[in-house]
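Archive record:
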Amino acid sequence: MKIEINNQSNFKIDLKLVRRVVRIFSRVYKIKNKELSLAFVSDAEIKKLNLKYRGLNKTTDILSFSPLNNDGRNLPGQLGDDDCFGEIIIDYSQIKLQAGNFKNSAQKELIFILVHGLLHLLGYNDKTDEDRDKMIKMGEIFIKNYL
């Protein structure tokens, strides 16, 4: 998978680690010839995007955007006809905050959240507690087995 990373944050982020996680994820889930756009942004920027696209006027750790079909619906489990796998936007200051809350390193939290976002691009969602628990478990298993 080809990955384009744009770090608009004020943080020094281990982009080699990010690329490694995406590369392993794409190999495990057999994603070939697709492009991923990934941006690291500020609290203010992710809050604006969260309001615009989700109607939530608050910061969040990650936003994932999947390719859309002609009806404007997401393509769960499908990667679309074009080369775009999707776009992920991460607020690294939220990652650092959550890492402290979960007694994790920022690096471990980043990996977990990145994998979570990639699972969203595959069509998984966390709208219910059951779906959220499933995604968390999938992320944990992926990290344990492949990283």
